[in-house]
């Protein structure tokens, strides 16, 4: 079930309302070590479909090697490269033939990390703004890398107040008449909704989408699938466009992240449609400038706790949910208690009329 | 010292550096050593300190009979035992009590490297498999632990492989594998190309396999078809005054293509003598954090070959 959180994190553990009391303490939330979290039994995006051909390409999830290629047009992934001299034992993550479960959906190749017997398409995250069979133009996609841990990258994403400063030259500064943050979550997902009234217009929309007004109303949604470290970033701008972004953070190692990005700008004007996905190259480097030095500081427990404001409520909840899920997995419980493949259009407020496939 | 109480074997010299022409001064931490070859061509290692008046033996010479002679008063020592063999002014009275000796250390040579163990009774180490043709020595003004940390966090600060650009991105983080600490870093060929942060695939990787006790690291450069283009062995040894003495050997592999052929010209591998200190200061302790953690874990585990007191360097008596 989905619980609603729209109060400061300070009150999370003090109230006994509708939200279930989490197993993880507030102390742990403010002093977490995301570097130690390894999520299992999940689909991780490992490549864009067009990036996989007959020759094996190499990927990694938590340092576990994935060699991916096509056999008879079908994507397959193996633990060993066909040309590799085997210097190590087969892991528990592949079948007897050394193959991983693989599926292809939304124009992305997904590799299963965990017990291969537990792989199930029902655990694939719902991304309702992407065509199920893929096929979006290549310019709406990219591969981006971050030298930080995946949770650090996602925590960066879920607190969008950072964008007003780090990406002000792309998406506009912090000025607005009002700003509200809501958080929705279950055991497998967290969704943050940020609503701004009369926010200073995003420069990229001013220059490439022809927005002449000085302000716009903005509804931004960040939805994170905890296990797979996949996120949806969906912005609705009035006036302006709808910009849904698939923002996966595949943990190639515990402190290096790979993003097979897909931004569906099909409904935007010609110029904006092409330019906006390219902004990701700039934005990702801006993010990396902060998350890269930030990440090593979360590799070990420290005596000092992080501070937070009311805008951190989603981030605090994200930390808490990740720790709860990690604790559950550490105890041997890998079951999905909530359905991640259920259509999330309503939760993210997707204007379905714009994304019919 | 290893977990089992054994002192590690340190690569203190390349075979070419140890001769019967002149002594070689090296250190293992604060322990100065003198190396040379005796009359049979066997490498010898004594403390670099004459027991007479503490003068460095490395300032002396090697006699035709293979003994090392102090340059101060001419006392001569046998390399195998460290026993005093001659005091020139004593003329015919050349019989000395057993305590008249310099400290001798265990020494072994293979694969073009000379290794010394500070435990004279140490069992011989497993020999190196082969001798790589290319080699070099660099002395770097940085502590050994910091040198190794930099190797994991930003190898470009320390080493250079012709035409290779190291990226911050890893194929696998540092892990323990067969008693070694193993990590694989993605690399690009130098030149114009799509920037690393936006690259879907990388054409080459550098694998590092490090001995947790000494930091001796084997470093194969491989392409995406697992062809080994170059292999280097790097041995960073703590020396006096916080200096790290780095000996290395390398050989070019079977690489084809333009880049592979370029690696075959001259010496494509180098260890930098100087470090960009400003860049070092800015580099983040990322993979090296794993190195510290793994060494600590190995120190408390019972893994064979695991090490304790890994960062401890010997102190001269």
From TrEMBL, chain B:
Tree of life domain: Bacteria
Region (Disordered) location: 291-317
Pfam families: Rieske (PF00355)
Residue intervals of the Rieske domain: 9-116
Keyword Cell cycle: no
GO MF annotation list: 2 iron, 2 sulfur cluster binding; metal ion binding; oxidoreductase activity
Key words of the record: 2Fe-2S, Iron, Iron-sulfur, Metal-binding, Oxidoreductase
First and last residue of the signal peptide: none
Gene3D superfamilies in the cross-refs: Rieske [2Fe-2S] iron-sulphur domain
Protein's UniProt name: Rieske (2Fe-2S) protein
Organism per entry: Alterirhizorhabdus solaris
